[in-house]
Automatic annotation (TrEMBL):
GO terms for cellular component: cytosol. This is Large ribosomal RNA subunit accumulation protein YceD. It comes from the Bacteria. Coiled coil: none annotated. The lineage of its organism: Bacteria, Pseudomonadati, Pseudomonadota, Gammaproteobacteria, Natronospirales. Plays a role in synthesis, processing and/or stability of 23S rRNA. One of its GO terms (biological process) is ribosome biogenesis. Pfam families: YceD.
Length: 183
């Protein structure tokens, strides 16, 4: 989708729909796990330009994309769908943003034409999960499927831990302190 003229589209109360390549969103691209051969879709979006009751230029729309992120359990790519909807006021300066009511969100355009990639990148960055991971640990790569992390199968295995030495995380500290005994 090429840069759009919000003034012209708002005059006709027109909607624009199309795809935006993720490579036009460098900050979002930096968060993606593309090095392992994973691919990312293009961002599908719909934008409707209008003027509100106060004559402010607005854009309302939605966007969807599936992006590869790094699973925080196995460090391998996991496909995560992102879906956002937005309702923004288009302004020309920081002073215009400050003049808006607190409940309104804005985007500052630097030129007459508005690049959809800039608007969508901001919205999609906010929609990224804090910690991406596969839905089920069984879908993770070998790093996370270590027998210590993977729960036992339901095929007759009990959920109780196998008998053996109990791990005590502070045992080393106790040994350094002299076994916790005062001399």
């Amino acid at each position: 989708m090429d840069p759009l003229d919000p003034e012209r589209l708002a005059a006709g109360q027109t909607a624009a729909e199309g795809h935006v390549a993720l490579d036009r969103m460098p900050r979002l691209n930096a968060e993606l796990c593309l090095s392992a051969g994973a691919e990312a879709d293009e961002v599908w979006c719909r934008m409707r330009f209008d003027r509100d009751a106060h004559g402010r230029l607005t854009v309302r729309g939605e966007a969807r994309v599936t992006v590869p992120l790094e699973c925080q359990r196995c460090l391998e790519p996991v496909a995560k769908p992102l879906a956002v909807s937005y309702d923004l006021v288009i302004v020309d300066s920081e002073a215009d943003v400050d003049a808006l009511p607190a409940e309104m969100d804005a985007i500052i355009r630097e030129q007459r034409l508005l690049d959809p990639a800039l608007l969508l990148e901001e919205e999609l960055m906010v929609a990224l999960p804090i910690s991406a991971r596969h839905e089920r640990i069984e879908d993770c790569g070998p790093l996370a499927r270590d027998e210590m992390l993977l729960p036992p199968d339901s095929e007759g295995q009990s959920s109780e831990p196998a008998p053996g030495p109990t791990r005590r995380p502070f045992q080393v500290l106790a040994a350094l302190k002299g076994g916790g005994k005062k001399k």
